Amino acid sequence: MSNFELLSEQGLRLDGRRPHELRCIKCKLGVFEQPDGSAYLEQGNTKVLAAVYGPHQAQSNKLDLNEVVINCQYSMATFSTAERKNRPRGDRKSQEITLYLRQALRAAIKTELYPRSQIDVYVEVLQADGANYAVALNAATLALVDAGICLKEYVVACTASLSKNNIPLTDVSHVEEMSGGPTLTVASLPTSNKIAFMEMSQRFHLDNLPAVMEQALNGCREIQAIMEKEVRKHLMQMGSAGDWSNIAK
Amino acid sequence: MTTNVNIRLAIDRVNMGLLAQNQTRAPRLYTPGEVVTGQFGFMKGHGTYVEGEDIKASVAGVMEQVNKLISIKPLKSRYVGEIGDVVVARITEVQQRRWKVDTNSRLDSVLLLSSVNLPGGELRRRGVEDEQMMRKYLQEGDLISAEVQNIFDEGTLSLYTRSLKYGKLSQGVLVKVFPSLVKRRKTHFHNLTCGASIILGNNGFIWISPTVNNEADGGDGGYAQNLNEVIPRADREVIARLRNCILALAHCKMMLYDTSILYAYEESMKYEVHELLQQEAIFDVAFLTQHRLRLQEE
Amino acid sequence: MQTIREFTRKTKRGNILKIVREHYLRDDLGCGAQICENCVQDETSVALLPERNVKSTLFTFPHYLVLDTNVVLNQIDVLEEDAISNVIVLSTVLSEVKHNSSAVYKRFREVVQHKPRGFYVFVNEHHKDTYVEREPGESANDRNDRAIRKATLWYDQHLEEAQNSRAMKKSGRPRTRVVMITDDVGNRERAEKDGILVASAEEYVKSLTDFPMLIDKYARKSFESDKKSLPIFPTHLSVNEIHDGIKAKKLLQGSFQASRENYLEGAVSVEGYEHPVLIQGREALNRAVDGDIVAIELLPQEEWTAPSEIVLEEGADEDPGDNVERTEKEQSVFQKSLTKSDEVRPTGKVVGIIRRKWRQYCGILQPSLLENASRHLFVPADRKIPRIRIETRQAEQLQNKRIIVAIDSWPRNSRYPHGHFVRSLGPLGDMNTENEVILLEHDVPHSKFSEEVLSFLPKMPWVITDEDYAKRVDLRDLYICSVDPPGCTDIDDALHCRELPNGRLEVGVHIADVSHFIRPGNALDKEAAARGTTVYLVGKRIDMVPELLSSNLCSLVGGVERFAFSCVWELDNEANILAKRFHKSVIKSKAAMTYEQAQIIIDDATQQTEIAKSLRHLNRLAKILKKRRMDNGALVLASPEIRFQVDSETHEPLEVEAKQVRETNSMVEEFMLLANCTVAEHICAEFPECAMLRRHPRPAPSNFEPLIKAASHQGFEIKTDTGLELASSLDACVKPDNVYFNTMIRILTTRCMMQAVYFISGTLQPEEFFHYGLATPIYTHFTSPIRRYSDIIVHRLLAASIGSDSTYADLLDKKLNEELCHNLNYRHKMAQYAGRASVALNTHLFFRGKTQDEEGYVLFVRKNALQVLIPKFGLEGTVYLNSLSGDKKPTPGDVIFTFNEEDYTQRCGNVVFHAFDPVTVRLSLDSRNVQHEKLVFQLVKPYIKGFSVELTAEQSGDVEMVDATTANAADGVPPQKKSKKSQKKKK
């Protein structure tokens, strides 16, 4: 890998951000009518759609008497990367991310409330520009909120990297991922400060871990705030159209 | 045959958010993980959980308080049945002495053989023959209207159709919307003045059919399914228009009940039925309906 | 705060890639000007200050400069001068410079980072008002030029707004403007159209009347007069042509090495070719300069020639202009070389330059015949570099001075490359100047330590705190002493030995705890890592760490409490290691002795002090250890080493002598080796992936051929299959009649050796860790952290492994450490070369005006010369012999030597020279060439009439000191402090 410097001496990253800055985040809930919950999330150029079906009766072979079965599917559109490529569903990378998504979502969903049920989460990456997992998870969280599924709290993921001079960088873009820096992905429950999932590409010294992790967690908190704002906006719109008559008692 | 497909860019979409304006009665909203209140002196209800000293929300929605019971109601979720709810449902499986029914709730619902009116006799014991005849009465894919009779422990709904108003549905159109959009009313069966009947299932399934004459139809237990009868085109158009109106309202997240549907129907008259699939028309109809409803309320 | 720009880029890599990248434009980037109050900026980054304004006759008002990329690339020498300040550096320019030349970028960055210079980097690419989108059909260059113009314009307007405040107007100061410097005509035109103030670099430099000499540094692409003359050289191929040519295998790529002897000859080492491809003749060389990466085309096989063995220097003292004709001499060279067919090598010609490796060159100005001429020829000290034409108005001041010059260009119609004056080093022949030249030529970083570096030194007075005592093992009571060469001020090792109650012996090696003072990652650490090693020149030491550390706090001087890193063994009487431990400690050396003093104490049986006992134990153990090492196949190598006694005032050498080796040298050496090996094993076990070790590869068998041949002529057989065999066969090479024979054989062996190198354990297989010279499976450097950076790393690893210090990220980073190793190896090599060059220089100084007859030995017999070694000075030189060769007709009176290829002898009459024969030669200095003084060796004994001394100097041939006098490849030779010996300072 190249020795590309991720942070210029002027303190700007390759795309002009400062170390602690997230990319631009746009999100929207309830983008589909068909599923029970859906969301679209755009973090910089990484764009993801998520749809949630359920909770519904679990298939008899998966059925769990104690808690809900979470069924995830992460896939990437053929046109999502620079090179057009047919990605058969369930290629290794996607399978891995699917697994990780489930792990993180499991930490947030109040699984015990839905015995014998199943929740399907489908995530499709429309455009991949780094931190795909994190964006996918954030979109999935929004879709779950939209579906009215009980969550302990938002589960939010963010990535962080480390520049040559040991300054942590939030929200790693594709260029930065490719430049050979390490990438730490953290999925957390920001309010209770719990970590649901953590993954690391490459190595760096243990001394740097706290700083990089804090940076990622800060990113999580910021993303959560943005998501929270969008959720409230969405709720407000939904309720207002019907003049809140569904809850008026 | 040319089909007129209309695909728009996201950017050209009509901003439905305008419908949410002029709101004065916005309630306090809660989102997952948010502290609703201290635990002391309250009980946690649906959509909440206890962590430490606090009761926290687990869904995004509004608070409902019944005495000390605090619950958060999401604005959108799967159907959570209550006893007495009218539902429109679909048979998914025929089992021993019961049918499995999809009611859009968390778990499959059941319709026990003992909870249906069998043709011929009102209240007789169910014999082996009846069990063998089950598929004759209701088979996979059939739609029924029913009422929630009971809720089992894990949340499974048990339905019954032992009333003349319930039973197998014949010709008509099913519209699915989010359950929370269906307003709870005294009656969910309406014979609309525009010339169609409508069943607003609490579970978000809405059945539109040509006007039925309950009295005339009664007595057969609701298992007659006359698929040969030809519905006149005018009636079909009314049904189609109703369907589009309901979808339009649902799209705009407006509550569905007889009045709102009727208003929407009336407001839609200036459009051709197929035009109601376009966003502008949807918005227009919804907006005018909302306006009329608000006027009426005041 | 953020906006997005996306752009699509199509790259061809088999498939078409669509690359969409985000580009955030910001509004929080300050303009860096103090007069601006509109920008939010942090105080420390403001660089453009009114007091730094430059006076220019072209722009009489205060102004800031915006430089275009080419100006930076070409005029970096001008920019390095303090004259120019208040410069706005656009990020567009910065990245273009980086892309084009990493060397210039590095230098430019230095300038930019130097705060007082007032260079402000403005990230125009991410500023919302100055970002420029590439338009369809616009080239990247045009787009960048436009970006520069846009930024300039914005700046000008921005500053205008900033200065519109009432206070500014009232003050009546003239408005500060922004000036763009560009040499691009098109760019300039467009800029003028936009209303930007523009000047060319030359105009601007000339307008700085306060700095009249600055124009000398201005790099010209061409001189006026050249434009008329005809092209001498063929054109170079374009980049694409070269690329295609190499792809089609029509062209070859390689790095060009000019010949030291013959300026019209060079070679290109091409991958896959056994021998470098020969390039001969001016046109074939086609402006390639030593080190350049070039593209060459092979000549048809029938045109291949052999390398000429003729020394050819550009003799002309005057500027011959650009005449195309070859001088007669040149002509003859080629005819001659064509005749030889036996050594024909692939021959080619340079058709294009892939990458220039031009650097700055030391040298002198060739005196000009015309008075007041501004064009001059510069003669580089390095003979591989062609002379360079420069323009200067200070030629008179520069006469007889060492100066530095950079090459700017080499147009087709110019015989010499064009360059410009960079700076003057000082008067020729002055010790300081000459040392400076050596340091520069060997790329030794030798500037003063910067303030930032010094800020990380401990504050004086430095005291040991209780906390320190608590963390360290207290060894202050032990009888620890250090043994070093006389005058040594950076004592990094000390020893002790005591008898334990259980009858065992405890031996401790205590190494200065430098890593305690140099914390990872700070400026001090980075500087030390960059320097890599302390460089010892004769009478001068270039420290790796500031003197406070090297000669005071870290130096284990006697009677003072110092921090040490101790490696302690328990040994039995047969020197078997029974236990070992490492810890940080506080020691108080009881005595800092010289080798000589220690030797005296050991030998003096009346001395029964603790120190004396301890030394005797150590000495005895060391002998056992050495014996064991030898039995394992460790090599005893020899290299002639000399030391100078230097005059303290003039720093000129007074006396030369070969250094003496005492038992105590070997004693210290043994324990250092033992410590190094012990530590190496330990850190390699603890950090299998990232331990810094040192290995010495086994030489290729072919390397030994000259040695085997030379020995076999003397009737000895050298076996080189294993180190052990080699060691024992070397031991067998003893001639009773020639006491120096064995040493000479060992000197020859040394030259067969490979260079020992640092490496990271994770990068090689354990079998490759082997240290050939020492015959140990694993080795590292632990014992000299004051003067070697590798030892500091090893200290840190060791400290981390025993838990007395923590690791840090870079320490465990394999890749970074590998880079560090490369640098250390390079610095180490260069330090050795510099040391040798310094010895050579001092030898020359010593012989200046002297003629001395000395005894020596023939080291090699060559076809036309004898290689003679003077053991007393460790000097090696060549006595050239006349031989019957080529087309030369023997003339009567000539003394003719006949070379016998069978047994490698030279015969003249009845005198026969064998290798290793003793001879007497007369040494004198040939100072005709001021830059290249040479030691001349002339034969005195055996006397050959007509050849020995009374002959005229021309025929005897001249000799140059061969660089390899102190060739010392392996660590087997006393591993440390070789050159420190030449350190004697009379004070």
UniProtKB/TrEMBL annotation, chain A:
Any matching Pfam family: RNase_PH
Domain (Exoribonuclease phosphorolytic) ranges: 21-149, 154-218
GO BP: nuclear mRNA surveillance; poly(A)-dependent snoRNA 3'-end processing; rRNA catabolic process; U4 snRNA 3'-end processing
GO MF annotation terms: RNA binding
GO cellular component, one term: nuclear exosome (RNase complex)
CDD domains: RNase_PH_RRP41
UniProt similarity note: Belongs to the RNase PH family.
This protein's name: Exosome complex component RRP41
GN (gene name): EXOS4
From TrEMBL, chain B:
RRP4 S1 domain location: 78-150
Keyword Nucleus: yes
Biological process according to GO: CUT catabolic process; exonucleolytic trimming to generate mature 3'-end of 5.8S rRNA from tricistronic rRNA transcript (SSU-rRNA, 5.8S rRNA, LSU-rRNA); nuclear polyadenylation-dependent rRNA catabolic process; poly(A)-dependent snoRNA 3'-end processing; regulation of gene expression; TRAMP-dependent tRNA surveillance pathway; U4 snRNA 3'-end processing
Superkingdom as given in the UniProt entry: Eukaryota
Domain Exosome complex component N-terminal: 29-65
Keyword annotations: Exosome, Nucleus, RNA-binding, rRNA processing
Localization of this protein: Nucleus
Gene Ontology MF terms in the entry: RNA binding
Main location per the UniProt record: nucleus
GO cellular component: cytoplasmic exosome (RNase complex); nuclear exosome (RNase complex)
Domain K Homology residues, every copy: 172-211
Residues annotated as signal peptide: none
CDD domains for the chain: KH-I_Rrp4_eukar, S1_Rrp4
InterPro entries registered for this protein in UniProt: Exosome_cplx_N_dom, Exosome_RNA_bind1/RRP40/RRP4, KH_dom_type_1, KH_dom_type_1_sf, NA-bd_OB-fold, S1_RRP4
Family membership: Belongs to the RRP4 family.
Protein name (database record): Exosome complex component RRP4
Gene: LOC105226174
Automatic annotation (TrEMBL), chain C:
Occurrences of domain PIN (ranges): 63-189
The keyword Nuclease appears for this protein: yes
Subcellular location: Nucleus
Biased composition (Basic residues): 977-987
Predominant location category: nucleus
GO MF terms, alphabetically ordered: exonuclease activity
Keyword entries, A-Z: Exonuclease, Exosome, Hydrolase, Nuclease, Nucleus, RNA-binding, rRNA processing
Nuclease is among the record's keywords: yes
SMART domains the UniProt entry points to: PINc, RNB
SUPFAM superfamilies, alphabetized: Nucleic acid-binding proteins, PIN domain-like
Pfam families named in the record: OB_Dis3, PIN_4, RNB, Rrp44_CSD1, Rrp44_S1
Domain of life (superkingdom): Eukaryota
Residue stretches making up the RNB domain: 472-804
Annotated segments matching region Disordered: 315-339, 966-987
Family named by the database record: Belongs to the RNR ribonuclease family.
PANTHER family to which the protein is assigned, alphabetical: EXOSOME COMPLEX EXONUCLEASE RRP44, RIBONUCLEASE
Protein name: Exosome complex exonuclease RRP44
Organism: Bactrocera dorsalis
